[in-house]
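Exercise: predict the fold of this chain.
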Amino acid sequence: MRYLSRENVEDVLCGATLLGAGGGGSPGPALKLLNELFAKINKIEMVDVGEVKESGKAIVSAGMGSPEVLLKEGWKGQQVVAFERAEQMFGKIDYVLPVETGGFNTFTAMQTAGIEHKKLVDGDGVGRAIPELEQTTYYLHGVSSSPTILADWQGNSAVIYPNDAYMAENMGRALTTIFNMAAGIAMFYMDGKKVKESTVAGAISLAERVGRVIRETKESKGDVVAAALREIDGKLLAKGVITKKVVEVKGGFDFGRIYVGGIVVDYKNENMIAWKNDKPIAMVPDSICWLTTDGTPLTNADIKEGLEVAVIGKKANPMFRTKEAFGTFKHILEKLGYKGDFKRIEDLK
């Protein structure tokens, strides 16, 4: 167990933004909430996955919606409302987990844990960010999606009972549209034994280390791209200026295409596949991440034409690098023009 200070949280948000693979929410709204959060609390208690008591009760606390809308309109703690509804249903909950790694969705779980005085678990359901709820190790390890609770910042809430995470995603997106494209969510209620089986352990600590390396390298005026690549055992896919970005919001998602350094990156909230000369050079569940050449991690919502960036590939956590996990992305990749099997980033050129 350890306590996270404000500086620790800032490092986590920086690292999680890079590791979010273009998604997971821009850290801007989270950074704006730090003053408010640490005016109420002094620290956030975080425990390792191995420290979770098997008899304890845990739940995932997150936000759902359009990253573009989040960036424009900010966040009002909708997930805290959803968490409080969950405690009304289930009784006392001991642990809070992020759904994914991202500058926003890692923070939402941290914010809930801090405000509600719960223990934050050092892990999440992916080790990167993803657009759909079935693309998590929670779902792949059989954690029930029912019930799922969604809420807006005004206290409106809904409880749904989907048969699986696919239906939770579809029903949740419909409600998110009603909630002006920004909903808090509480789901994947589980006991401590299931937490240990289904969680990508150490995800928050990894984000903190990456964020600290970026911060310290910038302070020493070093090569931030090289430092980040070393820390995550990454692969430099391209470096150059963003020449074109095309994006549209449909069905509760941001769909887009970004052109940079001789490659093209297609995304659905998060980066799904990168192409060079019409051949894939990286694909989900491996990550395609953005870092400006002067050391600022970016999400797709932050990307603007004219920015000079490095495109960094990262291997997925082994727990997520499976045929079953890849299967949850196939319907997206097929729409983007890729109909083959998963190819590891280190095997692509």
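Check your answer against the key: Residues 2-201 form a domain with the CV3147-like fold fold (CATH 3.40.1610.10).
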